[in-house]
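TL;DR need structure tokens for one chain.
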Amino acid sequence: MSDKIIKLTELSNQISSELTDIILENNIKAYITSIMVGDDPSSLSYLSGIDKRSKKLGVALNIENFDADVSEDTLVNLIDRLNKDNNCIGIIIQMPLPKQISTDKLLNAIDYRKDIDGLSYLNQGRLFSGNPFIIPATAWAVDIFLANFEKKYNFNLAGKTATIIGRSNTVGKPTFHLALKRNMTINVVHTKTVAAEKVSSQSDIVVAACGVPQLIDDKWIKKEALLIDVGIHCVDGQCKLCGDVNVEKALEKAAYITAVPGGIGSLTNSLLFANSIKSFFMINRNKEFKFNFET
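>> reply
TL;DR here they are.
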């Protein structure tokens, strides 16, 4: 059964290698900034992963941490200063934010060229219109995986049906638009969908991005479907990692399932820094940069 579990470590290393070469060839000496309010454990874990990757690539990570009672104006003023600093090639906002802070206001205060999470109205609008600049890294990871899978397994994506389980701005919605660009027919199911399992079980491809540990089992997928597990969770109090997929049950039907850990998550951090390199070229050279791994 293990040959059905797809690890993406090699693909992640290829992407990281390309990023390293570009950083060295262009003598990029810059940093990205994460703005964090409070001490949410999941945010701290996420930043730990980004910090490890930043050290490998040589792009510094600056963390601006604030108490939960920080004012919205304080954060907007910080973003304004970072927007004006050309050495800052990426700004990310750790969420959730406290009630006194407008998430939309903060995200859209970021210069769209530095919006490496791809969540500002401008970057989301470009994606919607079919001309993306910065793409949310997890959705981009799903898209890069699908393109790689198509080549490696001679699996034509055009005309395939897919169901995305989840409708978040970070994963579900952007993945929908990227899949449309690949000429797939897409369903999006969520907490209000009637008979979500039935909808999903008729699809060639299922993207599990619901944020619920091991929810997706054999009832959600049809025989020989490709199952992409976006989730990552700590369970059993031991920080044992699992995804949104119940792998043991799903393997009874799925042709392939992406691994957790070592799957989509292994691509995501690399692609966040790929976005920061796109930011560097747009800010400093007024150029929209394309990577080899995108072709």
